[in-house]
Structure formats: C-alpha cells, structure tokens
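Protein folding task:
====================
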Amino acid sequence: MRGRQSQSADLMTRRQLLGHAARTIAAASAGALVLPGCRPRRASAAPIKVGILHSQTGTMAISETSLRDVELFAIDEINAAGGVLGHQIEAVVEDPRSRAADLFPKKARRLLEQERVAVVFGCWTSASRKAVLPVFEELGGLLFYPLQYEGAECSPHVVCTGLVPNQQILPAIDWLLGPEGGSRKRVFLVGSDYVYPRVTNQIVKGYLGSKGLGAVGEVYTPLGHREYAHVVHDLVAAEPDAVLSTINGDSNVAFYNELIRQGVDAERIPVLASSVSEDELRSLVPAAVKGHLAAWGYFQSLATVENQRFVARFQAEYGPDRVVGDPMISAYSAVHLWKLAVERAGTFDVDAVRQALRGGIELDGPGGLIRVDSRNQHVYRRCRVGRINEERQFTILHESPELIAPEPFPASAFPDARCDWTRAVDKPVGSLPSQPTISGAAS
C-alpha cells in the first residue's frame, strides 16, 4: 500500500502536469512559454510536438509517473533556454494505463499518426517496448527508451539510454562473487513473468555457468502479483546466500514485506534488485528493505556538484519529498540527447537525427558523462551498486572505474550476434537470437 507521503506526492504531480499542459496550450496560442521566475521568450517558429508515453495508472504507475515528470522537467528547461532550432517544444502526454499489449501500441500510433510528434519518450517494461516497436518501424518514428532492459534487440527506431546486462547485472554479479560483495556463490533468481526478467536471467545463468556456477532456484510471478508467501518459502528452502530480483512495479511492496515476515535477513541473504530505485523506495517500509542492494548506473546519493544541483532543481519544481533514481536520469538524459542530435542534424527529420546520434553524441549530466554508442544506439554508462539505508536512499558501495560500452548481445549468451549500424545499413550484423518461449508469461 502507498503511504500518505506518496499519495500527496502523486496529487502534487497531477497538479503540476495540469499546470504544464496549461502552459503548453498558452505557448501554442501565444507563441511563448512562460515559466515561473523566467522572462517570457517569444518563439520564432511553431512549437514542435514530442510524445510522452508512460503509464500514469495501473500497476506500473508507481514507477512510470516519475519518468513523465522528469521528461516534462527537461522539456521546460530546454524551452526556458530558447527551445530547439528556434522552436519551443510542446509535450503530448498519453496514458497507456499499464496495458502493454493493447493500449501502448494504440497510443504510440496516435502520437505518430495524429499528433505527428517528432520523437517519443516512453515505455518502461520490455513488454510495452516490444508492443510499440512494430508501430515505430511501420511509421518511421523514433523512440527513446530510458529503462534498463535485457538486450537481445537492435532497431534503428529505438535509442536506449538505460543499462543492458553487461552494464548492470553482470558487473553486479562479479561484485557479489568477489570478496567486496561477500563472496556469494549461491544465487536465487526471482522475477516478474515477462520478457525482461526471463531473458535477463537466461543471460545470468549463462554467465554463472561460465564461472562453474548455477542458480539454486528460479521463480516468476505475474506483474501486479501480491501473494509471495510460497515464493519466499521456496527461496529460504533453497538456502541461497544472495537473491537476484527482477520483480517490477508495485509487486515489490508485497515481496519485501514477505521477506521480513519470514525472517529473511538482509545481511545473511541480501536481495540485489535491478528494478528498485529511489522512487520505488518511497512506497516501501524502510525496515523491510534496509540493507538490501540494487545495481544501477546512478543513485541520488552520488556526491557530485552537478548531481546535487540537479536534485535541488527538481525538488524545487516538484516538492522536497520527491526523489530521483536511475530510470529518471535516463529519461532526463534522453530528452537532452535528442536535443543535441537535432541541433547537430539541423533538422527534426528522424533519419537525420539518427545519423547525428551515431556520430557519438555526449552528455555530461547528473550521473556523469554518458555517450551514445555509434554502433548500436545504446549508451555508455557506469555500473554502481548501492545498499538501501534508513533514509530510503542508497549508500554507494561500488562503482565501475570506467564507462562500460553497451553490448546488447552479451557473448556469454549470444556468441554469434552483435549490433553494429556502422557496418551495415539499417541491418544488425550476425544472426539475432529469437526470444525464449515464455509459457503463461506477460509478453
């Protein structure tokens, strides 16, 4: 259940969204966008529409509403600084209501065909990304996808600013296996039953196998699942010394509460999550999660001046109770990377923007330097491992010393596939593996 603080934050978010929409309408009619505390700027040309496609209701709202907020925040920053190529940006926000199979592609088609947006920033689950991909390929659109995901995909119509397994899960496993992480060798896998957890764990098992290890258990539950008594019972019976969790959405509340109820100690059996960030921690009881771990490229506790300034600006706009996590930074960075690519291309044309992105766009943002990989339209990122503390934040325990090049097809799982747009025209190099058959899973 969501606490009073989170409910208050959601109400504030909806009010701010309405306020943003009002400012956008005013900009469209008057040719200017007026932000609080900013001198009005007159646009020299008609506004350029961009789409925002994140669930604001349903089981994924706990995570996706904040992506909407931070993308609107980035758009307001850009508009206040004069826009892009002399145009103000007008956001068209759609709510696909956590329904990957039907509403996500329907809303994506509406944004591209009816609203004629120049770009879309959207999706969370791999199920939703896969559902909209045929629409973007059919209509020639461009999607910026901000989430960590399983890889095994390569499309010229998608730019991925989140982490892939060789940047997140696999370095975190190396840390767990080493002395710094406790030399833990018995790993139990638990995830939501859809594409991302299934394929990620396929990669994880291949990686563990390359080290002479194997998972001691593997369990999946539907998105939105609430009953974890049997799952945790089986987990404890397997006697792991670590748990790798790819549970997504509000199911995490029930999972962590059940761990506490059955006496699972975070020091003895830590859960390393790949989908729990600061935003999800707002809905979790600190006693249920303190001491458990997460692997990301960014944590709000990152002690850099740029990050501290960004967090202060965001909280000044959305309230001091709001927090920032890796998916939000990926979403924020996506908007600014698109702006840089448009400016390099000198046009909003999708093909020209893609070519500009493949030229190696860089952004020094709140999480540090990131760079678009010209080979595959993914982003160079760092891996960081953090431990949840009593303040619903992460104490950073580990940081990769260098930026990690994205490999959507890790060699341990896909030895014959890779993605390289610099060597072929809109065609990945090598044979791409088919996704595993997922019986009864949300696709």
About this structure: Residues 4-30 form the longest helix (27 residues). The CA atoms of residues 31 and 218 lie 56 Å apart. Confidence is low (pLDDT under 50) at residues 1-43, 429-443.
